[in-house]
Amino acid sequence: MVGVEETTLPCLASPEDQVSVAAVHGRPEVINVWASWCPPCRREAPMLEAAHRAAGDRILFLGIDSRDTRAAALQFLDASGVTYPQVFDSAGTFASRLRPPFLPYTLVVDASGHVVYRWIGELTPDRLQYGLSRLEAAAHG
Per-residue DSSP letters for 45-101? Predict the structure, then answer.
């Protein structure tokens, strides 16, 4: 991804598995940095899950649980029904490289690894749709 160093983080549910966050996975991505203690993060999670389900395999959704406890994050994901992949950034290392002033923070990355949209704060359906439309524009541009 442009502007983000390669970062490897453990999977939230299976910490023995490592995921390269900054690697281009060959398809567009929506990366959401969140925490279970963050009310806006909790409110936007169902919308992100619905978008993930609607996108199917066309777009990779990835959650980065930041500055949180694994137990609280897993409990929240289970209760909210979020199913897309999640990694664990307990120290907030990834988030600190991005320098958002607060959570949540969302990046939309095209298939070549360029950030085409970023949003600091709670996503609304319109903001998420705009970010996803930037992927379509990048693919045809």
Answer: HHHHHHHHHHHTTSSEEEEEEESS-HHHHHHHHHHHT--S-EEEETT-HHHHHH--S
